[in-house]
Amino acid sequence: MVPLLGRPFLAWQLALLREHGVTDVILACSYRVDDVRQALGEGESLGVRVRYVIEGEPLGTGGGIRNAADLTRGTVFVLNGDVLTDADLTAMRRLHETRGSRTTIFLMPVEDPRAYGLVEVDGDGRLTRFREKPGPEETITTNTINAGIYLLDAALLARIPAGRVVSIEREFFPALIADGVPCFGWTGADTYWRDIGSPAAYHAAQMDMLAGRTRSTLPPPGAPRDGSWVAPTARVASDARLEAPCVIGAGVDIAARAHVGPFTIIGDASRIGEGARLTGAILWEHVTVGPHATLQDCVLPCAVEVGAHAVIAPGVILEPGASIPERATLTR
Predict the structure, then answer these.
(1) What is the pLDDT of residue 85?
(2) How many angstroms separate the CA atoms of 76 and 64, rounded?
(3) What share of the chain is helix, strand, coil (3-state, %, to 5)?
(4) What is residue 137's three-state secondary structure?
(5) Which own/partner contact pairs does 134-138 have at CB distance under 8 Å and 24+ positions apart?
(6) Is residue 72 packed enough to be buried (19+ CB in 10 Å), middle (13-18) or exposed (0-12)?
(7) Three-class SS of residue 67?
């Protein structure tokens, strides 16, 4: 639910699915489900139908899928909930059908694969080995990783044990390979992909989005204005400066001589004081920035208050509701 360019992250995933003709979506949830429902509803605003399946306790990457399996049929896309990508799911489905695959995994080459699940394939693209996050003493045989998008025959999901924690990476996929089930890898050319599961990656993903490095049919909220997106209810002083690209949310108030942007996102109902300067800053809702404060390449969650003349340096990530005194300097 964390916002990317002012929209819940899952909205970008739902838009990707809709773009490729997938409009029946099941969300496997366990944590703060009411917040998810409030943000996405039934998916009608995004052109999809959203149904919710709730885990009484977390069941792991495989158990959560098994918990939702009874609602599926045919061929099913499964997406990790922390991956921003513009992958061509239509091309992935085409390969799945052409190869007669029953499981197709989106693969990505990365410089350092140790933090991910490594996937080895043969010359025909058939999966031969799945190694989940090798240890520092293990030999790295490939830089191709599991990128967190799967295309599965729904009938295979019955192989996942029900009612317990299951790892799809450590149990389900290796068992399919061992049993000779047709499993292939798909690597999309010119595909943007980023795991946003760390604060630094979360920040970098939005900078990439504003720079146009990833494609989406879903625009940022607000109306286009000189390379930025500004909500109609935002108030920008006549002598304040917006430097594109930036995103300004609903009810935002930007005071005189403030300089906002480039690469800045300001969440709904936030206040930017006179003469403040924001570059590469990500602000969630109800953030207050005092006069002549300076923010650069940082993340300020909901209800943060920054005092006058304070400096927030690159890489700083604050907690919700934090209060920064006047003239304070925060560095990473």
Answers:
(1) 97
(2) 14
(3) 25, 30, 45
(4) coil
(5) none
(6) middle
(7) helix
Token pair 């340096």 in the structure block, residue: 313
C-beta of residue 207 within 8 angstroms of C-beta of residue 4: no
What is the distance between the alpha carbons of residues 158 and 194, in angstroms, rounded to a whole number?
Answer: 30
The pair of three-digit structure tokens given for residue 297, joined into one six-digit string: 């390449």
Report which DSSP code applies to 139. Answer: P
Q: What DSSP designation does 171 have?
A: I
pLDDT at 295: 98
CA distance 127 to 269: 49
- Terminal Cα distance for the chain, rounded: 25
* CA separation for the pair 81, 61 (Å, rounded): 10
Q: What is the pLDDT of residue 110?
A: 87
Length reported for the chain: 332
Residues of the chain with pLDDT below 50 are: none
Nearest Cα to Cα of residue 320 among 298, 304, 309, 305: 304
Confidence (pLDDT) at 134: 74
pTM beyond 0.90: yes
Q: What is the largest CA-CA distance in the chain?
A: 68
Omega within 30 of 0 (cis) for the link into 262 = yes
Closest CA to 208 of 249, 245, 259, 250: 245
